[in-house]
Here is the input.
Amino acid sequence: MSLLQLEGVSKKFGQVVVGEQITFQLEEARAIGIVGPNGAGKTSLFGIISGDIRPDAGTIHFEGNDLLKLNSAQRARAGIGRTYQVPRPFEHMTVFENALVAAQQGARLRSQHSYDLAYDSLERTGLSEFANQPAGSLTLLHRKRLELSRALATSPRVLLLDEIAGGLTDLEVNELTAIIRQLQSDGIAIVWIEHVVRALLNTVDRLICLAAGKIVADGDPQEVLSSTAVRELYLGGKVVGESVQ
Here is the structure.
């Protein structure tokens, strides 16, 4: 049985289509990458899965259960974790306190259990040495890692990553992808939206390309990127190792 299953998911905002008959499955400990031009509906899809956006049609099942019956907080507690394109730390709180809030509110843990999970999430992302530092003083790389730590502190089975490599140097991207590959090895299933294609190619098992809310390609990452349909979506641009241009 698939861990996460979307069937015929559709959504419009007025005349703007952000999702049209989106169907795919995600198995445990597997990683799917999602690419597509700006406005393709990628982040809206994450909003639908995480519970921030209600679809107009379709079904979503998680571990065989109807996910649409749950609100966003219930989905987080059920095992759906996510990051955001722009990190949203509580800047005047410490790095550890940020992770602790996620453990207590997202995973609904208390006392020592929440402290242990919060610290473990920082260790897994290489942030434990910054635990007592104010989150507002972090570099972009460390803010991205904190965003990932807070998602991990909710004990996710599925992790939704939204352009977590954006704005990082090549070395920083390499460090981040190594962390994400380890999370996958630990059994966490991943859906990753990213414009830094190299990061996806080094991580995901499968690649989906979205355009105008539709899946236009789905399959082996190299085959998807080399397809004529995907290249044409970028207005004659070319798909290169660093990004889609």
User: Anything to note?
Assistant: Residues 1-79+158-169+176-245 form a domain with the Rossmann fold fold (CATH 3.40.50.300). The mean pLDDT is 91.
